[in-house]
Amino acid sequence: MKNGLLSLIFLSVFAFESTAQVILFDPIQAPSAGTACQDFEAANNIYDTEIADDFTVPAGETWYVDSVIFYGTYSAGALTEAGMIVSIYQNNAGSIGSLVFTDTFNTDVDLNGDGWLTPTWATPVNITSGDYWLVASARKDFGGGGGQWYWVRDSNLVGEPAMWSNPGNGFASGCTTFVPMYSCALLNTSDSGMAFRMFGCYGPNKPAGVELGSDTTYCENGIIITLDGSSSSMGVDYNWSTGATTSSISVDSSGVYSVTVTDPITQCATVDNKSVTVLPVPYYDVADVTTCSSALPYTFIANSPGMSVVWPSGNTSVVETIGVAGTYVVTLTGNNGCVGTDTFTLTVEDLEPITSPAGPVDLCIGESFMAGVVGTFNEYEWFEDGNSVSISDSLLISSGGVFTVNVTNPDGCTGTGELTVIERPVPTPVIQSQYTLNFDVQLFINGNFTSYEWSNGSTSNSITVTQNGTYTVTVVDAFGCEGSGSTSVNSVGIEDPIANQVAVYPNPTRDNVSFTFPNTWIDNASVTLFDTQGREVSSFNVNANTHSMSLDQMSPGVYLIQFTSPEGTGNTSLILTE
Question: Number of H helices and number of E strands within the chain?
Fold first, then answer.
């Protein structure tokens, strides 16, 4: 295992990449091969190794390190994943000094499985100017096929020579404390540096590109200005003095506004501010006016110290006389040069009172209703066909005619409304009757009504009665007027007298049926056959005493024969057999 751990993997090609942050330190010149650099599991602790290489933060700078790429490679067949132990020490005249920072990544920091370990910090590591040692060791188990990780060396020296340490001396190198790699014979290398890059930013003027512009002064006038703190750096955070966190804000009041633009990874920030002065705009409320036409023209006033006035007509006096209804704008200019406006309206009342109901109204004979006016007025006077009938706000109307109402409002304006009332007669339904096949009596109403209500509870326009007696129907017409009629029935169960005048034979039948009619029916009567669904299946006019009809196209069943004669309408049934 010793030889396996010490085996070196030489790289034929190194194509090193960077992150989106600034490269703070890049010592890479001529990468060569790799050296074991690993924190093993407890069973192999004696093989733990560390490598240290130095870097310098220039005077006057502060580095905010967000990530470091350690370029390396794995042993053959090793799992391509590893954590990392990273420490930064002060450089004490070429030796490891005081600890500045340390962090352990127990999870995988190999983003692409290529051996390049990249630990990152959400809160960047803050390093002030000075000389330091970067000490690292991959956190990776050897057992279970985990294998090894080797940190790639660089053959050129940048600063101090890189140092290597195996505290447990598992490799029997004798290099149990940090010594330059070239002085540790077992490593058999003359390389003096390591391949790594440090990323972040340096303060205090990062990120760049914030420019709010010069201080500004403007007139209020409801204007909202936008302060744009957008930075040319991508992915930065914004923090305004107002508490906003967007790249720009809209303001409409005086004040000094500042924005701090911060890189959320490196925490580098820049600040800019801008003074905004908002001047007040002159204001005067010219009241809206509603008046009668008899009060025109009307005089408006706009008088306030420290401002000048221009009316729509061009008049610059404090008063303006207007005689036409409309909406107008007065322009006001203050001593600070700001211009304001006020909109006012002159409304001329032409009263056109609306009656309630609005009309025309259909009034059934014998009924009445109360008419009124929409809205409230000071005075009322009602007229019927030109004659004054009331000075109340309402009027009881019980007859047809044309009614007018004169009203007066609090401004003394007057107006007239009109209501037409049409008197409608009470409907009188005429009840007609006819026999059914069962010698019951069907009562029906001719005429169009909106609703029906019979004394037996039915609401259709016809009923079939099976008992003698008196039947009443109440109807409502299109005008809402209600009327009723009644009839007496005393022929239920008596055969149809109209149908009894005709001989129908044979009945039942299969193929043909014959009719014999009275002489008075010739050229004065007709016959219609209906099926049980009420559909007409055949008909003919009576023009002789006898008539025969073929039934071979009709289906077996019961049919209704309806006779329409000079005496009226009668019904009988026809049975068609198989």
Answer: 1, 46
- Selection from 352, 351, 356, 354 nearest residue 397 by Cα: 356
Architecture of the domain defined by 499-576: Sandwich (2.60)
Q: How far apart are CA 284 and CA 265, in angstroms?
A: 54
What topology does CATH give the domain 355-424? Answer: Immunoglobulin-like (2.60.40)
Top-confidence range, 17-21, 187-191, 210-214: 187-191
State the pLDDT at residue 175.
Answer: 95
Same fold, 2-203 and 499-576: no
HSE of 392 in the Cβ direction (CA atoms, 13 Å)? 8
Q: At 97, is the pLDDT very low, low, confident or very high (cuts 50, 70, 90)?
A: very high
Q: Give the torsion sign (CA, 25, 29, 31, 35).
A: negative
| pLDDT greater than 80 at residue 270 | no
CA distance 53 to 68: 13
Tokens 């009331």 identify what position? 390
Contact 187, 203 (CB under 8 A): no
Strands (E), 302-354: 307-310, 319-322, 326-334, 339-349
User: Whose CA is closest to 433, among 458, 468, 457, 459?
Assistant: 468
3-state secondary structure of 506: coil
- Mapped to the 3 state alphabet, what secondary structure does 245-274 carry? CCCEEEECCCEEEEEEEECCCCCCEEEEEE
Domain 2-203 annotated CATH 3.30.1330: no
Domain ranges (residues) in the chain? 2-203, 216-279, 289-349, 355-424, 431-489, 499-576
Global pTM value: 0.42
User: Are 561 and 504 contacting, i.e. CB atoms less than 8 angstroms apart?
Assistant: yes
